Amino acid sequence: MASPLRRTDALSQLSDDYSYRVNLLLDEGREDLARELAEQYEREGLALLVTEGAR
In the predicted model, what is the mean pLDDT of residues 3-18? Predict the structure, then answer.
């Protein structure tokens, strides 16, 4: 099982990565792609929590 700190670090990195990419898309006026990426972030974050919790 992953330590809570390692899980927190992974989620923090995931959040940072997606926030950066979503902000770039919004700056380019691509709200449609930003929304899709935000939804992907939600799925990936949940998968990370489930996977890490199962270890």
Answer: 89
